[in-house]
Structure formats: C-alpha cells, structure tokens
Amino acid sequence: MNEITNIENSLEASTVKDNLLDIIGGSADYSIEKFLDMGDGIPIVSYFTKGFKATLAVRDFLFMEKIIEFLREIGEEPTTKRKKMIDKIQEDLSYSQKFGKVSLVAIERFDDIEKAKLLGQTARYLARGEITYSLYKRVAFIIGRLYLADILSFGSHEKSLVLLNFTADLEALGLTRTDWGMVRESSDHDGPQVGSRIKITDLGKVVKCIITNNVLSTQVPSGINVVESLEERMKREYP
Q1: Is there a contact between 86 and 80 (Cβ–Cβ < 8 Å)?
Q2: This protein's superkingdom (predicted)?
Q3: Which residue in 2, 187, 206, 207 has a CA-CA distance of 20 to 30 Å to 117?
C-alpha cells in the first residue's frame, strides 16, 4: 500500500470516526499543540503529525486546517450515515476514485478554508442520500474553480443574475444558461427585438441549496403529468 493510499484511507477512517465533533472541539483557533492533541483520535491528523513534535511545514499546517474544517462539517451527520456513505462508495466497483481520494484532491487545491467547509456541507448531502457520489464530485470541482466571494454571492443572490459580474464563469460550469428569444416591442424600436435571459440550471439550484444549507425540495416538472423533486431529477441526471 503506497503513501497516497494511506492518506486516502486515513481520511475515510476519520470521516466515520465516532464522536468526531467532540474530538475536534468547537474552536477553530488551530495550533501545533492542538493538532498533536487531535492526533490520537483522528487518523489523518495522526498521519501528518507523526514525527512532528515542534513544527509543521506551513503548507502542511494550512492543509490540516482545511481537513479539520471539512471533518467538522461532515461530523454534524450521525456516524451511522457517514459509515453507510463510505461503505456504499467502497462497494461500488464503478467508482474508480473513492471518497478519500476525491475529497483530498479537492481540499488540497482549495485556496480558502471556507471552501473546505462547503465541501463538508456537500458531503453531508451525500451522507443523507440527497445527492449522488457523481454529483458530489462535480460540486467539489465547481467549488474549486470559483472564487469564494463569487460562490457565496451566487448562493445568496435572489435578484437578476445579470447584476453579477461573473455570469460567464457560472455558465461555463453549468450553473446557469442564457436563453435567447424575441422580447416585447418597445416604443423606442421598430418591431420585436432579440433579447437574452440568464436562468439557473438544475445543477445551479443544487449548488445554491448546498451553499445556503437548504433542503433540495424545489419541484421541477418533467414530462406532461409527472412532477419530480429536484433531488430525484438530479439523481437521474447524475447517477
């Protein structure tokens, strides 16, 4: 077993740890001493602090902060749900990249600790069975690609998306789409005019729900006489 696999396994073992929140504690004021204290109870922290009694490289220290905030969020879910989530992914042979690897790669690339929290929130939806693992990986990619302030602005924005100055990024990631069509005639113009409207896609609605920590309860029509929830529709589109 190589070192990368050891790290992946240690993150998964940490994710399903009993009393995870009790071990982490409530304070986000991290220090070398605090990481060393956590080491005995959280496998991935133990992995990184092993042999370090006085100092950690700055890169490792910042990475550990992101890992702990990720675990703090997922730790809000009952241990049974977290274990069920990991077991389901491990048993599915169609997943070449397991939860530990996907999460570690995403967290390592994040440029802000708040993004690790958002990924932890996303993992909670996965643990509750509200999103699929395929969708979890996609959201992890989206979080990594957007600037943090833009992510939060998109999540909280209720008015016209035209007012946002990063709609091109949102559309490139599949969160919005631009619909073109004829608009009403205006006294200032001769005849109808071609105009556009920015709309949030189903994927965008899911991301907004995760950012604001809301339930996936939006009803989306599908077919003539069938109405399915956003949760059901996304599971079908991202199995």
Answers
A1: no
A2: Bacteria
A3: 2
